[in-house]
Amino acid sequence: MPRRRKQRWVKFWPEVNLFRPVTRLKRPALNLRADEIEAIRLADFLGLDQITAAKRMGISQSTFQRLIKEARHKIATALITVKEIRMKGGEEDMPRLNRGRRQGQGFGPGVGGYCVCTNPKCNYRQPHQPGQPCFQLKCPKCGSPMIREEAAQVLEDK
Question: Would you say residue 105 lies in a domain?
Answer without folding.
Answer: no
